[in-house]
Amino acid sequence: MPIARAAKRATARLGAVVLAGALLAACGSSDSSDSSDSAGGKVTLNVDLFGSFGFKEAGLYEEYQKLNPNITIKQSDTQDEADYWKSLQTRLAGGGGLADVQGVEVGRIASVTQQQSDKFQDLKEFGADKLKDEFAEAKWSAATTEDGKILGLGTDVGPEAMCYRTDLFKEAGLPTDREELAKKWATWDGYLELGKEYKKNAPAKSAWLDSVGSLYGIMIGQEEERYYDASGELIYDKNPAVKEAWDTSVEAAEAGLSAKLDQWSPQWNQAFAAGSFATIPCPAWMLGYIKGQAGDGGQGKWDIAKLPGGAGNWGGSYLSIPRAAKHKEEAYKLIEWLTAPEQQAKVFQKQGNFPSSTGAIEKIADAKDAYFSGAPIGQIFGDAAKEAPVQVLGVHDQNVMQQITNALSEVERKGTSSEKAWGTAKKGVDNVIG
């Protein structure tokens, strides 16, 4: 989710909200021993995630506990990935309050491998190196340090598409066929033009898209180099791809196409069911989130079409084990099982989180989703995953993205000029990176 999951993965990827106090209470202790929770050999594994990874929803915890009666799994969630990461950094620094399993969004994985490798368990000690061929190369290598430590097993990736409300399109007099729409918005200019048509006859209290932040995020996910180049140099302020995504997002804001909703906010959540926007750029992990927020009343009203401007990736996550985890060996067995092809395929079929396991990708190629009007999600997201660029990840990827989307929110909500907002974004990046 990421982003989230995503972010995010969500990233969101983003499920139930849990208050910070409850989150910390749910996490495991900092005792690094692998002792059992009781004399009877029972072990409680605490899994701390952001957003909706889909494990609980797909029934995987229940299945694992039946296969392993001595294991009890307790999951805690934080809706906003930025809040989750901030809390995780505090606990890593202090060494206490850490879970047995911690989720890591793809935009943070470079920070883990390059700056915090001493805080996380090398999974190679449990035999993780034997799993390399089961994962997409880009996914595997991103969680591997220069000296060969394996610091996470991949869950999902975030191939991108466009989700849209067919009922709102009909009311506005727009076509609803996914193939026809893919042709009309083959480019981002075409997407904005269709949005302007929608605005002329839009249903009351309905905008073209949820926020320009989501538009920016999905566009920048189509690029190989975004905030850093392959040498590790920070290039966001001179990268033409960032400027194009920024300018397009500003144009959408100034044209009044956005519902001006902060992603992951309560108002944003409510908007899925209320019909407050007609389109939302959606990585695969967003499907489960839409279902959760729109509810049963949204079934058959949503559909999915190919993304404007080509394939991209937004989000995706890893499961890692802190060095201070209480039950590292049991935790490893769990995350190996959760990220195996069979389980990744089950999560996709239930939640839409697109697998990073090559074996799972083969299993879901023909999958369709009744909730999204029978959309061939296996094909749509499978094609996007194959065509998406392998992205260069930097230590502060997620921080840079957050500052830029915060600045775009000023354009969207306050009418701040593009030039002034970009200056704010640059100052924010300088402050965060130091």
From TrEMBL:
Membrane-spanning ranges: none
Give a yes or no for keyword Signal in this entry: yes
Residues spanning the signal sequence:
1-25
Give the PROSITE patterns listed for this entry. Answer: PROKAR_LIPOPROTEIN
What Gene3D superfamilies would the database entry show? Periplasmic binding protein-like II
Keyword list, A-Z: Signal
| Presence of keyword Kinase | no
InterPro entries noted in UniProt: Bact_solute-bd_prot1, SBP
Q: Check the record and name the PANTHER family matching this protein.
A: ARABINOSE-BINDING PROTEIN-RELATED, SUGAR BINDING SECRETED PROTEIN
List the protein's name: ABC transporter substrate-binding protein
Q: Which organism is this entry from? A: Streptomyces sindenensis
